[in-house]
Amino acid sequence: MSLVFNIIAYSLDFISYITGLTYKEINIIVYYMVIPFIYIALIDRISKKHFLKVIFGIGIVMFFLSVKNFHAFSEWFFDASVVFLKSFEQIGWNYVVASVIICVVIPGILFVLLFYYAYRTEINTAFKINNKGA
After folding, report:
1. Contacts of residue 119, Cβ cutoff 8 Å, sequence gap at least 6
2. Domain limits of the chain?
């Protein structure tokens, strides 16, 4: 668990170094904007509609227009997220374990499922899987 946690943390830290944004700002952007947008794009592909991406994009633009200080917001929201993850200590998960399960494993499983359903025809064709009954 620590290895996965460290890889993600160092990756976000590297992105913050490259962009000039803080680690907390990058964390908020990735986990609350980029990843949800990817899920929404996959859901749009599954439903063969494209309005969820547009609505989410408009929401993000409105968010950035309305937040006066994204740095301060990120500090507060990241700290609130840490409190949430630390609350899992009640079931025996420390911060690192909770972070990996809640922020990596569950989103990863959700991504794989959404990706499969969004691209199942292409995946089945690529692996020459018979699609009868699907």
Report:
1. 45
2. 2-126
State pLDDT tens for residues 96-125.
999 999 999 999 999 999 999 999 988 888
List helix spans (H) across 20-94: 23-29, 35-47, 51-66, 70-86
Under a CB-based contact definition with an 8 Å cutoff, are residues 23 and 34 in contact?
no
Q: Residue 86, class by beta-carbon neighbours within 10 Å (0-12 exposed, 13-18 middle, 19+ buried)?
A: middle
Q: How far apart are CA 134 and CA 131, in angstroms?
A: 6
Cβ atoms of residues 64 and 70 within 8 Å? yes
Residues 95, 108, 39, 71: what is their CA dihedral angle, to the nearest 10 degrees? 30
The rounded distance, in Å, linking the Cα atoms of 78 and 72 is 10
Q: What is the pTM of this model?
A: 0.86
